[in-house]
Write a structure and sequence with these properties.
mainly alpha; four-stranded antiparallel β-sheet; about 5% strand; flat
Length: about 800
């Protein structure tokens, strides 16, 4: 973050350093001394690099604090000194790396007697490691001049910080040539042989562990470096020494020719397991590297290692039978006498790695020793040790899925084609009685469970082993041989096996199968979902891809830009010229549903809502039905009914508009006309509200009758030159009140309306024959009369 204003305040260290008699401890007591040092405060750095203070800093990390100091602040100054020296400030690195007196004082820490203080050792290792990284030439040259450097490193290898320093020398030296020089120097100093000598029963457990880990890391680092630097012509001398047959033989001699020591045996096995790794695995476990049922390519292990291990296989086999003495272990399940132990577990891991090499001489040696039979005995004896069960499963998976070793004998079949047989597979099925032991263990477990006992702890792995047999007999490289071995079983065993794989094993696999979400329908408990359960969606590939892309989206900062809305969609659309189409709008859903039931339900609901406006049992037509509305002058009503055309009447109306002066004082103002609802906030006339006649003239808003009624397409306005005669204005009871028809066909109604201070008379003539009604008002000279088409219920 960049600040607009400089809010940096002056550190108190600057003020403190201005004192002439300031001491190093006073500076180290400041809370922000480390931050100021890493920020390369010039005053502070200049103060620290003074020879006296640099020597004091080195002294703090190399000498034991006084016992008189309080415990909680005993290592305060050593810790701060280490942080100051490793703050990666150029001036401090230069002063410390180029001053040999300071380096000698620092190196003197290694000359202390064992065991070293682990905390001070970590400070020493950290300071020397950063010097190796920043000043590799000077530091390597200085260390090579010290003849006892390698001896002291091996002497203190039991301290983990010293082991880390040794590995730093192999990884932190950047120039390739300088690194090669360091490797040659360490190899000349016989660092590998010295580390091998540390793995002996006479040494303590810390030395065993750290020496073994150092050798394992040297193997991995050297192999990784070989893969990374392809053009390196010089081999790694440390790796070459480790892979020599005499080195491996020395390791094995340390643990077998002397008293058995659990820690030493495990440490040596760890080194052998690392040597059997041709490349560093990407993840832990061999099942993932070589899953059952897949072909297992042979590992290109150095032959000298296998030659050194082969004579010692009998010793490893004996460790399975007679491990180092272990005390009786009481567990919640019961008493283990003896327990499996770390030694035997690692021996089984070593056997699994040896099987993975798929070497004929190793395989034959394991067959002769019957090591696989002993391992199976341990599998069924220690029913709750899943570490052991996993390793046994790996061993059996290797044997079932590995092709026969290259040097094994060939068998000629009837077609004269060479068929290579696996001796391990034959040994496993015949000598070890693999299938019979699986069937017996399964039956024993079912019997124990039927009696209320627990399920055996190895049943999960046993299920996987049985599935591996079935799979490899069908599709594995040894399928024909497995089927042949099964066919050679007794009739009883073959029947038991067939019944097992078709019954118990199949049922177990069915129970263990986890259904995915899309393998079954999820039904909702809501009744609303009933109509949509069988609704099919159009299987559009683009739609499916769009939805799949949406599901795979990560919730990142540009998620909305990739999928959702953008800023332009929230702006005024009239102001946006180029509006991008949303991707979602291109997705069309096609629903194949039957909506007849929903339509019927909707119409029934509407009918219930409108039913309250209808009279029960009434057979009259709905008053809201749309009808034709026509307005015409009385003088032209009869001609229209006798066949006059709309065009002629429209022409006459236009002529009358020309003749009549809109400013004639004889014309009545809008205030003298009948009040109607014009839709502009005026009160609706009660007469109009109660009248069943709906009409509209579609003329200027000044017309008091041309607002509320919708205009039909055929409805047009007709104007008259004169006001109709008195005959037409007679009351409805007058016998002479007719207009071109009998009294039965016409009905005349006269109403007197009050509009403010004025009164006017309006007559309504209803013609049942032509289904029209004529309004007449003497005060309206502009509109002589208007003609309306009556609704059907007014006929």
């Amino acid at each position: 973050m960049f600040w607009k204003f400089d809010l940096h305040t002056t550190s108190h260290i600057d003020t403190l350093l201005e004192k002439e008699d300031v001491t190093l401890t006073e500076v180290m007591d400041e809370e922000d001394v480390l931050q100021e040092c890493k920020a390369q405060n010039h005053k502070l750095v200049d103060f620290l690099v003074r020879p006296q203070y640099m020597e004091d800093l080195v002294t703090y990390i190399t000498q034991e604090p006084s016992d008189d100091v309080e415990e909680k602040i005993k290592y305060k100054y050593p810790n701060i000194s280490c942080e100051l020296l490793t703050s990666d400030v150029g001036q401090i690195n230069d002063r410390l790396g180029e001053d040999e007196s300071l380096l000698m004082k620092l190196y003197g820490f290694l000359q202390n007697e064992s065991p070293l203080n682990p905390l001070l050792a970590s400070f020493f290792s950290k300071v020397l490691s950063i010097l190796i990284g920043r000043k590799p030439e000077q530091i390597v040259e200085f260390l090579r001049k010290r003849e006892d450097f390698v001896d002291l490193m091996i002497k203190h290898i039991g301290t983990s910080a010293i082991m880390d320093l040794l590995l730093r020398m192999l990884t932190c030296v950047e120039p390739q040539q300088l690194r090669q020089d360091v490797l040659n120097w360490l190899n000349e100093e016989k660092v590998i042989q010295r580390l091998v000598d540390m793995v002996q029963p006479c040494q303590d457990e810390d030395r065993h562990s750290n020496a073994s880990q150092s050798l394992c890391e040297i193997i991995r680092l050297s192999r990784d470096q070989m893969f990374q630097v392809q053009g390196c012509s010089e081999p790694d001398p440390l790796l070459a020494t480790l892979e020599k047959q005499e080195t491996v033989e020395q390791l094995l001699s340390n643990i077998f020719d002397k008293e058995k020591n659990d820690s030493a045996i495990v440490s040596v096995i760890q080194i052998l397991l690392t040597l059997f790794e041709t490349r560093r695995p990407a993840f832990e476990g061999h099942l993932e590297i070589c899953p059952p049922g897949m072909s297992h390519p042979s590992f290109s292990v150095n032959q000298s290692i296998l030659e050194a291990v082969r004579p010692r296989l009998k010793d490893f086999h004996q460790l399975l039978l007679e491990p180092p003495k272990k005390n009786i272990m009481k567990t919640t399940w019961g008493v283990l006498d003896p327990p499996v132990g770390n030694t035997r577990l690692n021996v089984v891991r070593l056997v699994a790695s040896l099987l993975q090499t798929n070497t004929h001489i190793i395989n034959m040696e394991l067959i002769n020793l019957n090591t696989l039979g002993v391992i199976l005995d341990m599998y069924f004896k220690y029913i709750w040790n899943n570490f052991l069960h996993l390793q046994v499963e790996i061993c059996t998976a290797m044997i079932l899925a590995m092709p026969p070793a290259q040097s094994e004998n060939l068998k000629i079949d009837s077609d004269q084609e060479p068929v290579r047989e696996s001796h391990l597979l034959k040994h496993l099925f015949q000598k070890c009685q693999f299938l019979q032991r699986i069937l017996d263990a399964w039956s024993s477990n079912e019997k124990a469970q039927a009696e209320g006992g627990r399920r055996q702890g190895y049943m999960g792995h046993l299920t996987r082993i049985a599935n591996s047999i079935v799979h490899n007999s069908d599709k594995g490289p040894n399928g024909a041989q497995i089927q042949q071995l099964i066919s050679e079983l007794t009739e009883d065993d073959k029947e038991r096996w067939e019944t097992f794989i078709s019954g118990q094993l199949a049922d177990t696999n069915k129970r263990n199968t986890v259904d995915l979400v899309n393998t079954h329908h999820i039904h909702s408990s809501s009744d609303d979902e009933v109509d949509f359960k069988d609704s099919g969606f159009h299987q559009d590939s683009s739609l499916q891809q769009a939805f799949s892309d949406y599901q795979m989206q990560q919730m990142t900062s540009n998620f909305i830009e990739q999928f959702g809305f953008n800023d332009e969609e929230f702006a005024d659309q009239d102001d946006v010229v180029d509006i991008p189409f949303d991707r979602i709008s291109d997705i069309n859903f096609s629903l194949n549903t039957n909506e007849s039931a929903n339509i019927a339900l909707f119409e029934a609901c509407c009918k219930e809502k409108i039913q309250q406006f209808e009279d029960a049992g009434s057979d009259e037509e709905d008053i809201w039905d749309e009808k034709d509305v026509t307005f015409a002058p009385e003088a032209q009503r009869r001609p229209r009914s006798s066949g006059s055309t709309d065009s002629e009447e429209s022409t006459d109306s236009e002529e009358e508009d020309v003749k009549r002066d809109p400013f004639d004082p004889n014309n009545a103002s809008s205030d003298d006309r009948m009040e109607v609802d014009t839709g502009e906030g005026e009160p609706k006339d009660p007469l109009r509200s109660n009248s069943p006649v709906a009409m509209e003239t579609c003329i200027e808003t000044g017309d008091p009758l041309g607002v509320n009624a919708p205009m039909q397409p055929e409805g047009e306005l007709y104007y008259s030159d004169q006001w109709p005669g008195d005959e037409a204005a007679q009351p409805a009871s007058s016998p002479g009140g007719k207009a071109g028809g009998s009294h039965a066909e016409e009905t005349v109604t006269t109403e007197t309306l009050t509009n403010g201070s004025m009164k006017e008379t309006v007559s309504l003539t209803v013609d049942a024959k032509t289904e029209t009604a004529i309004f007449k008002s003497p005060t309206d000279l502009h509109l002589g009369s208007c003609k309306c088409t009556l609704p059907s219920h007014c006929k």
